[in-house]
Amino acid sequence: DMKTDLNLLLECLKYQMDCPLSQKEALITIYSICQQNSEASEYFREIGGLMFINDLAKSSVHCIVKEAALFTLGIIIESNVYCQQTLCTSALFEDLILFLIKKDSGVNLKRMSVYVILVLVSNNKNGQTCVRDTGCISLLLQLFRTTLCTSEMNLSDENTDPCYQLWSSVCSTLCACVNNPQNEDNQNICCSVFPYAKEWLESCTEPEIVRPICSFLGLTVANNSYVQKYFVSIGGLDTLAKVLLELMHDSCLSHSSTKLAVVVTKTLDACIANNSAMGVALAKYHTVSELLKLLSKGTLNTGEKISIILTIGHCTEVCEENQCELLQNNGLPLMIQVLTESQDEELIKAATFVLQNCKQMTEQLSLKSYDNSLNVNNAEELDVQVRKRCLQDYWKKAKEILHRIKSIEREHDEEKVQGEIFVDGSSVAYSEALKSHEVNPVDPKTYTERTHKEVCCSQLASKFNDQVLAPSVNSAPRNNATVNTMDAASTRQTEQSNIACSVNELQTDSVLQSHSINGKPACVKNQPIGYIFLVVFFLPHLDQHLFCTETTGKDKSTSATSSSHKMADFRCLGCTAGGLSFNSKTFTKMLQSCLHRCDHHRALLEAEERYRRELRTWALGDSRSATHE
After folding, report:
1. Which residues does 37 contact at the CB level (< 8 Å), separation at least 6?
2. Helix (H) or strand (E) holding 299
């Protein structure tokens, strides 16, 4: 039974004082029983075995017994918290200091002493306080500075180098002194060895050196703005960035370099997590792009990905240069991919953190890039930009006009539902006057002509939808689009006056023409007035080159010649009257009087004439039915 074994082993230790080998064997058996066994450790403490081993470590003259006794103490303390509280005294720390400073103490004895300090301060605020008050932490820092000598050390097999093992134990103990729980006082003391750590990182990038140092640095600067600023002030952040660059270069050939790069990344994040403004120092090393490359490695686990993404988030939180670098290296798609494909909650939170930064920075960068785009020294480029902006204004105006037209048509539909509109004497007389112009709908020639005109009108409406209405929905400027427009100032003034005049005319004419007789609508289709108005009175001024390419192309080629006055007679009046003011009546009359209409204005005129003929036919038919009644 376990209790019986421990009682017998304790008796063996007491009665074998003159036989160090027997004592060593008994100690080894005790720690093998108590290792990771809290109940056995507690029972051994209750029977007085813990304090006996403590006294044996101090009083024995045999080095092998001292080492075995200290190691057994460490195992028992680590296994049971009550044993830790029992031995966490200033007296024990002072005894351990003596073991460390004695000249005749071997490296292995020092290592066992450091191990006991480690288990006493781990997860123990009282132990962290004792290690500081007794001056033990200062001795540990001295060992950190003096034990390691990279030039004389053989790192090919760190398990056989006692000095490296001692230095590694010191690093682990210092980490426990400042972390879990965080101890700011100990952090402020430990930062005194940062210059030494920086020098080792600059001279050696072996995992056996980089990993312990990065762990110590990361825990010492964590959540401590004073220590973080000091580390940055001595160039520590720059050193870490350089180490990361070197490891990323080697990661293509070595899997271990990739893993070590993640360790360096965690240390970088600890240095800037509480003060993202310090991440500006990383921009000149293109750290964000290197982190994105590291994130794309397929050998990373979820925890490593979280560390990398959080570091990217802290780098880009306030630094515009890092933000630009993230965008330029396709960081956003990568974050979105991580967000959509991952099932881990912490990883999703980290990716969301970066995307939130991206949301703010894309707004700022878009505004700045737009402002910078206006500062163009080349007059030609500036003119192109002004033309693009002018076209955007036209699109917006077209959308507003279409909205007004639809509102008017809705009002007319409501009036039709409320009641019938009676025809007065003047309307009947007007209908009678149109009888002479009635077109026979069954005439084959007329039917063919009408069919041709309907096709032209439908093509025109389709072109209008593609070139005006679609762009008006999304009016954001497109850098790759080549737009040809008229002069911005003159066109804008002319367009404003034409729009105001045409809208008033439309409101007057459309009210008369959209009334129904006996419940029958007077419109040919649902949107003829809107399309004819927009195409006739808005688009001619929007971009003549866009709709009249053939005619105006010829005009451009001949306008610079000496025969420009002769060629003026053969130009379309609709294309050359951009600077004049017209309404729906005067513009139609002008097109009818023109002998050389372009294809665009010819199609518009034919569509309007077809529309008027159908209005006359319906008006005559309604007037006849009213007369018979």
Report:
1. 2, 79
2. none
Is the distance from CB of 296 to CB of 308 less than 8 angstroms? Answer: no
In this predicted structure, the answer to whether residue 261 has a pLDDT above a threshold of 90 is yes
Q: Flag whether pLDDT at 422 surpasses 90.
A: no
Q: Helix or strand or coil: residue 251? A: coil
CA distances in angstroms from 54 to 59, 295, 563, listed in the order given: 9, 49, 117
Q: Any alpha helices (H) in 88-193, and if so which ranges? A: 90-101, 107-121, 125-133, 136-146, 162-178, 184-190
Residue-level pLDDT at 298: 83
Please, are residues 49 and 6 in contact by the beta-carbon 8 Å criterion?
A: yes
Q: How far apart are the first and last CA of the chain?
A: 122
Coil, helix or strand for 520? Answer: strand
Q: State the Cα–Cα distance between residues 409 and 413, nearest whole angstrom.
A: 6
Residue 423 phi, psi dihedral angles, 5° rounding:
-95, 125
**pTM, two decimal places:** 0.60
Three-class SS of residue 517?
A: strand
Of 204, 211, 103, 231, the C-alpha closest to 149 is 204
- 48's torsion region: left (phi>0), alpha (psi -120 to 50) or beta? left
Helices (H), 434-537: 444-464, 470-473, 488-513, 528-533
Whole-Å CA distances, 294 to 246, 249, 259, 306: 12, 11, 10, 12
| Backbone region of residue 316 per phi and psi (left: phi > 0; alpha: psi in -120 to 50; beta: other values) | alpha
What are the tens digits of pLDDT across the range 73-85? 999 999 999 999 9
Q: Cα separation of 222 and 275, whole Å? A: 11
**Using one digit for the tens of pLDDT, what is the confidence trace for 339-364?**
888 889 999 999 999 988 877 666 66
